[in-house]
Amino acid sequence: xxxxxxxxxxxxxxxxxxxxxxxxxxxxxxxxxxxxxxxxxxxxxxxxxxxxxxxxxxxxxxxxxxxxxxxxxxxxxxxxxxxxxxxxxxxxxxxxxxxxxxxxxxxxxxxxxxxxxxxxxxxxxxxxxxxxxxxxxxxxxxxxxxxxxxxxxxxxxxxxxxxxxxxxxxxxxxxxxxxxxxxxxxxxxxxxxxxxxxxxxxxxxxxxxxxxxxxxxxxxxxxxxxxxxxxxxxxxxxxxxxxxxxxxxxxxxxxxxxxxxxxxxxxxxxxxxxxxxxxxxxxxxxxxxxxxxxxxxxxxxxxxxxxxxxxxxxxxxxxxxxxxxxxxxxxxxxxxxxxxxxxxxxxxxxxxxxxxxxxxxxxxxxxxxxxxxxxxxxxxxxxxxxxxxxxxxxxxxxxxxxxxxxxxxxxxxxxxxxxxxxxxxxxxxxxxxxxxxxxxxxxxxxxxxxxxxxxxxxxxxxxxxxxxxxxxxxxxxxxxxxxxxxxxxxxxxxxxxxxxxxxxxxxxxxxxxxxxxxxxxxxxxxxxxxxxxxxxxxxxxxxxxxxxxxxxxxxxxxxxxxxxxxxxxxxxxxxxxxxxxxxxxxxxxxxxxxxxxxxxxxxxxxxxxxxxxxxxxxxxxxxxxxxxxxxxxxxxxxx
Length: 639
Prior knowledge:
With 639 residues, this protein is α+β, with helices and mostly antiparallel strands. It contains 23 helices and 21 strands. Helix 11 packs parallel to helix 13 (331-356), helix 21 packs antiparallel against helix 22 and helix 22 (571-595) packs across helix 23 (609-632).
């Protein structure tokens, strides 16, 4: 009996890889199991962190956007058009989606059940190879020589050559894994898994693998009451366990898991079940092996057990930033993703540091980044700037509570230093008693800076007024914000001082539009892109954002865009400033990555003529924004 809908689906699918590799009769059987989904514009197919579906999807018409979340913003990473596949995670990993899929227009997608398609994959090497290459290289269509469509639904940024090489490199896995004997009692095996924080345990006889017990076995066989908890483990284990040799490649590990529909592989000396167990490979190991994937780095950060783990993650983040720059990913997207991962690293470090303290925190507290870290503009490994605020306590407890948090802060800043963030030369860190205070002390500190804005106060304003909550009780940070905006409202003297400070660095071009370079010292004849280019824009954005009462947008580029919304009459200047800042930040980042430093000083001799033109064009908005500041705060006498 004919099925016209299935025939229509099959006729559509056969135009695209990997379905073109499948015989029409078999493809028609797949098509019969497909569901046809109609998505209205902006309708969500799946959210980031959603549990994976039992189907993957093919766009039949319309367009589906893939995005990641950063703070309150959704960052569009890719767009899937007709024939594109998305939602492939169920084939390779059992963890949740790492992106949100949302219809960008009215769309129709075909949902293809995994369990129906899996046998087709198993018996068709062309389809299997396509899917493996797609997942490993982060391309939706690895058959396209131009790699049109650079992403599948979970990986954000990739470096084509590195990923291809990495795909065939040995996978890192757990060596000398925890094992149990077939005669051990299930209850005690489960307790071992819980205490060791592992999701599986290999069952052995004389160090030879005979089976495996996973969390899934415990859920489906013990928690459901199917078996009692006091039986021997051989009665619930999965057997035989799939064994593989040492030095297995990422590609081979993926293929073996897909072929046998398992989530774990047992590593033995020769790859058979007749030699000693040497390791275990999990699906998590395979996903982690996909290298510099923002979602993977975030998960690794949250699971890290020691500072050295976090150092490795930060090194991978540096690779991600470099790959993103190479692929010309917009710098604001790189900042958003980097900021999230940096914060995740710091959050985990604080958690680990608290665990090392003799007692838990005595009162609620909050850790916050300041300066460029507070603006989430720190793409390079520069020095650390941070502070800590804790709840008010009785006078007699104050010194004791402060001593606790200073001790904690020293552990955290020491850990950051080990990860690669140098200690702040000016000691603007939470480990300094000056920057570890109760909420009342912090409020008084900010009031002092605002009410008495001398040279020292303004210097502190330029650093501490760019802050970002990282860990703890966020309401404490909100209280500080309330003080800042309350005390600065209609405070002409404060804005005059802050405005004058924002004019200290004029546009960095001489009368004949030549670059103003350093005249002496170790950086002679280089251009200071931080002081002469970035700082004037950062200072202007901060000043105007406070004056216009813009909260929760501490990133310089976003501050200018919010200003453009609030003041349409100046929108062109603000938008130009936002763009100029991002251009200058990219120049600094590229310089720092190229030379392994903070990228502050550019060698103009190494810049192309086009790059010099780009730099000069980025300086024009500095003059324009400073004119707005002079006029608004009546600072013409500072010219």
